Amino acid sequence: MKDNQSWKRLRRHVESPINSLDDGCLMHIFSFLSPIPDRYNTALVCHRWCYLACHPRLWLRVDRSVKELSEPGVYPSIETAVSAARPGDTILISAGGNHLASNIQIKKPLCLIGGGELPDDTMLVCSRGSDSALEFSSTCKLANLTVKAELGCCLLHRSGRLTIDGCILQCETNPLDYLSCPIVSTASGPKGFATSAKGQGDGVSVFRTRIEGGIKAVSTSGALELQRVRVIYARTSLFFWFDVEGR
Q: What is the pLDDT of residue 138?
């Protein structure tokens, strides 16, 4: 009985009108889905959807186990993936182990997403002597990642709109926490303040993110300031929501 019902469900899926579309059309539709969780969930539907949802045209992958660029769209480091990415690409960083991220400059719109179930599963480590793990000069998004800086800052925001969603930012704790800051913004200039509409111009938006260590959560040396702060006290952590925008 159960086998019969499973067959009927599979048959309905196979005969679904959407499956009459060719691979190019389906991949174009999938490109409009948010990478996590929608596009990720489409990969669970069937083998064909998995192949199309994980196609290198939709996102690049960082896998430390890869030694050479033998597989299209898969890179051994974040730096090489960022260099190869086109504006608007999504980079999926594999879970497990530590990914080195020191002074990586991102000057085009990109989305960087951790490949694990939790942000703890994908860790970016910035070594001592580096100013930051990642430096942003364009509109970008980070999601489901842990960024750890031994000294300096986790994220350096120069310009553009930076969104940090569901991440963990860790800085050096005592006695060197005064040298560390999870987020540093130096953004300034008239283009960031030509409009008062939320989400436009230079700024940083933080959602559901744990911030640990450092002298303070965010430091600004440009023309932006901390606004709309909300903190939720969990049993073992603090989760932050806030914006850094023009005065």
A: 94
**Mean pLDDT, the chain, whole residue set:** 82
Q: Report if pTM > 0.70.
A: yes
CA–CA dist 78, 76 (Å, integer): 7
Average pLDDT over residues 198-221: 83
Bridge partners (DSSP) listed for residue 181: 153
pLDDT score at 196: 45
In angstroms, the CA 202 to CA 239 distance is: 23
Tell me the CA distances in angstroms from 98 to 83, 147, 243, one per residue in order.
Answer: 20, 10, 28
Q: What is the dihedral of CA 205, 207, 209, 211, to 10 degrees?
A: 40
Helix (H) / strand (E) element for 50: namely helix 47-53
Q: Is there a contact between 75 and 84 (Cβ–Cβ < 8 Å)?
A: yes
Give residue-wise pLDDT tens across range 118-130.
999 999 999 887 8
Query: For residue 110, what pLDDT is reported?
Result: 93
Over 51-93, what HEC string results?
A: HHHCCCCCCEEECCCCCCCCCCCEECCHHHHHHHCCCCCEEEE
Tell me the CA distances in angstroms from 243 to 157, 209, 219, one per residue in order.
Answer: 13, 12, 12
CA distance 112 to 187: 21
Q: What distance separates the 2 farthest-apart alpha carbons in the chain? A: 68
Contact 31, 53 (CB under 8 A): no
User: What is the band of 190 on the pLDDT scale with cuts at 50, 70, 90?
Assistant: very low
